[in-house]
Amino acid sequence: MCHDTTKLLLGIADENLKITDGETGEDGVIRLTGHLDYTPKACPKCGIINDQKIINYGWRNTTIRFSKVLSNTVILALKRRYFHCKECHGNFLAQTVAVPKHCTISNTSRKECLEKLGEPVSLKHIANEVSASDSFVGRQLMRAERDFQTNWHYLPEIILMDEVKSTKSATGAMSFEFMNGETHELIDLLPYRTINKLEKYFYRFDQAARENVKIIVTDMNYTYPKLVQTVFPNAMVVMDKFHIINALNRAFNKTRIKVMKKFTPSSREFHALKRYWKLLLVPTEQLNFEQFKK
């Protein structure tokens, strides 16, 4: 195995980190071994310059997880040099740019995680790709959120509103999201959907931005139309056609089942209503009244 090539594939740029061996286990996990050793320039605790004031103090075993390579999880068992400072009698561990301090997930995995958060995939899928947990991906998403500042002076003329299933960090079972109806870009994702909290959030936008909203496209949730009365004075509510059709289908199926239960299970009417329920949903103009097929 060419260990320099292995470091290149894993994105390890630390010259002090050496990979010594590696193998693929029966479980498909690529397990690498390596060591990290160097001469520190100063003590990170007291700041004393290393003029033979810092000595080697053994090794410590650590683990670093990397993103999958060829669908295989990669784990590096890294022995790090442990140091002792004669000046302050403190001990410290050798650090590497491959992974943050006190962490086991590599920086390359963190970078890949942020890149995949822009893709239309679930957090669980991203966690599987970067060999991490769902909660880790969620924390990366929350940290990335701090780098994006909401523009409180602008809202598009068309806004799409809907709810999504919340993560464990949210306060409720469902969260609220709204998008630009023209560009389909996500504007914000909120961990709540109650009317009081939504009004408080949207009032943070200035009046000119709220008056710029002309159309709100949403489902049949009774909460969102109330925002028009208080927050968006110039907007009108448009029900999404998908939710209208979905509501009609549910109502029709409930009526079909109600009528079906009026017949005995052995009757032809019962079997016809139960078997051909899809046919009853087909529009009349698409039906063929001349040919009959069993």
UniProtKB/TrEMBL annotation:
This is Mobile element protein. PANTHER family: TRANSPOSASE FOR INSERTION SEQUENCE ELEMENT IS1557 (PTHR33498:SF1). InterPro entries: Transpos_ISL3 (IPR047951), Transposase_DDE (IPR002560). Residues 160-293 form the Transposase IS204/IS1001/IS1096/IS1165 DDE domain. It comes from the Bacteria. The lineage of its organism: Bacteria, Bacillati, Bacillota, Bacilli, Lactobacillales. Transmembrane segments: none annotated. Pfam families: DDE_Tnp_ISL3. It comes from Limosilactobacillus reuteri (Lactobacillus reuteri).
